[in-house]
Amino acid sequence: MIISLGLDHRAVHLRDFIIERLEAIEFEVLDRGASDATPVDYPDIAKKVAKDIKTMKANFGILGCRTGIGMSIAANKFQGIRAALVHSETDVQLAREHNDANIMCIAGETMTPELLEKMLDIFFEAEFEGGRHERRLSKIVEFEFSQK
User: 140: part of which helix (H) or strand (E)?
Assistant: First the structure.
């Protein structure tokens, strides 16, 4: 499994933890920034991760900024991206099972390593349920193609 990771300067403190955790379960990590606390523009990082998913260089993505909101908004501008801002184990479970999320967005300001570890496990273990959720996702895909 290949994971594209993008954290801005307000979430970079979680970088080493995430990389170590993913490598421990034998996932390959594409580190798309940031590498330190020097301010960066989160849309640039979200774009790199979204493109990794779209071009199938990565199976899933993880994005983080201070609140996770900006990363989520930026990533969701790309066709085929379903970036979910998650704050709890339940959020992660439902994002995967009901929304087939392919990017998990986190809030660097409030995320703890303990919670993040649980959320990572859930994100990569949960599977899309399909059924009524497939019908709803199809409507979202229609939006992507109908907007000019």
Answer: helix 132-146
**Second CATH level (architecture) for the domain 2-146:** 3-Layer(aba) Sandwich (3.40)
pLDDT confidence band for 143 (50 / 70 / 90): confident
Q: Closest Cα partner for 84 from 69, 66, 104, 64?
A: 104
Q: What is the pLDDT of residues 84-109, one digit of tens each?
A: 999 999 999 999 999 999 999 999 99
Residue in 74, 66, 72, 90 with CA at minimum distance from that of residue 11: 66
Question: Which positions are annotated as active-site residues?
Answer: 65, 98
**How many Å is the Cα radius of gyration of the chain?**
14
3-state secondary structure of 55: coil
For 15-42, the pLDDT digits (tens) are 999 999 999 999 999 999 999 999 999 9
**pLDDT (0 to 100) of residue 144:** 81
Distance CA 62, CA 102 (A): 9
Which residue in the block uniquely carries the two structure tokens 């774009």? 47
